[in-house]
Amino acid sequence: MANTYTLISSNTLSSSAASVTFSSIPSTYTDLVLRISSRSSAGAVQRIMNIEFNADTTTKYSDTLLTGDGSTATSTRESAVTIALIGYMPASTATANTFGNAEIYIPSYNSTSSKPFSSATVSETNATAAYIRNAAALYTGTSGISSLRITPSSGTMDIGSSFYLYGIKNS
Amino acid sequence: MASTYEPIATTTLGSAASSITFSSIPATYTDLRVVLVGTTTATANCWLTFNSDGATNYSDTLIYGTGASAGSNGHSSATKIVLNGSGNTNTSTPTFYSADIFSYAGSTYKTCLTIGNGDLNGSGDVNCAVGLWRSTSAITSVILTAGSSTWKTGTTATLYGIKSA
Questions:
Q1: Is the Cβ–Cβ distance between A89 and A100 less than 8 Å?
Q2: Number of domain units in chain B
Q3: Among candidates B111, B129, B140, which has minimal Cα distance to B45?
Q4: CA distances (Å), B152 to each of A103, A139, B93, B144, B149, in order?
Q5: What is residue A3's predicted lDDT score, i.e. its pLDDT?
Q6: A35-89: per-residue pLDDT in tens?
Q7: How confident is the model at residue B60 (pLDDT cuts 50, 70, 90)?
Q8: B95, A116: Cβ pair inside 8 Å?
Q9: Are A138 and B65 in contact (CB < 8 Å)?
Q10: CB-CB: which of A73, A114, A140 is closest to B63?
Q11: Quick check: A49 and A161 in contact, CB under 8 A?
Q12: Residues of B contacting chain A (CB within 8 angstroms)
């Protein structure tokens, strides 16, 4: 039986970058999985990690976030926004050499109706600024996803940040 | 490289159904993963059961977020494992569910990790649960139910097998 969890493309940063884009994503899979290890250069302990599809920056995104910081759990929401928040990554004042990890699962990415997607992100730093976050998100664009872009809310992503995009077939 | 992530079966509903069942699951994998994207005919809590076991052999512990608050709860000696605890299904906007079922063919009790994430652009919630089925039988069937509702036409569920070697 065919192996259906296939690497489409990857990018490990050799220089800092304000965004990472995967384009020309083939439509031959059922679902997409994006795995990220990243850190931001911004002057903060953490930075938001965002995703957008098909270079669409209209208000077609929404997300619901569940966050645990080691002492409390909270939940927040964004509606009709121009980019989806999928989690956070450690930034320049976080413990040195720590990177956050994320997995974003995008089912039925070729669908011509609204597309839900899900993310899990973690940043453990052996300090008080450590987080685990799960997000439910929605993209109401009606075209299949052929490109995606990851951006921090400010600053750049550090050298060594890595991004792996996989395709999954259900048959 | 060996094939380690394989589709066992997939179902796209041609008509509404109260449950989706994957049966005759081979014991040749290490773990199972179920992915479902779908809508329901009414808001519902969704559940997972194994081998048609309707007895009180299940338990789960859930953490959830509603966009305004977060909490945790659980069920002991239950008849099913939670996929979403807050009824985040929708009649038109699809929501996402997954279940990772570990060592499903073994003779020890079975644990799983479930996700039920549905954002509805102004409502919806995030659910993550650990579930336990207190049975020493290998899992040969997985049943996904939409509580008191039904899965709508177009709902798609896929069962994958994962091999450790």
A1: yes
A2: 1
A3: B129
A4: 28, 20, 11, 13, 9
A5: 65
A6: 999 999 999 999 999 999 999 999 999 999 999 988 999 999 999 999 999 889 9
A7: very high
A8: yes
A9: no
A10: A73
A11: no
A12: 1-7, 10, 35, 37, 63-72, 88, 93-96, 98, 115, 117-122, 124-126, 128, 156, 158, 160
pLDDT of residue A2: 60
- Could you list the residue range(s) of the whole structural domain that residue B105 is in? 5-162
Helix H or strand E encompassing A22: strand A20-22
List of residues 6+ apart from A50 with CB closer than 8 A: A83, A84, A85, A86, A150, A151, A152, A153
Report the CATH number that the domain containing residue B150 is assigned in CATH: 2.60.120
* Inter-chain residue contact B88 with A113, CB threshold 8 Å: no
Distance of CA B162 to the CA centre of its chain: 16
What is the rounded CA–CA span in Å between residue B132 and residue B135?
Answer: 9
Q: With contact defined as beta carbons under 8 Å apart, do B108 and B102 qualify? A: no
pLDDT at A92: 94
Query: Which CATH number does A5-168 carry?
Result: 2.60.120
ipTM score for this prediction? 0.91
Q: Which two tokens stand for residue B86?
A: 């807050």
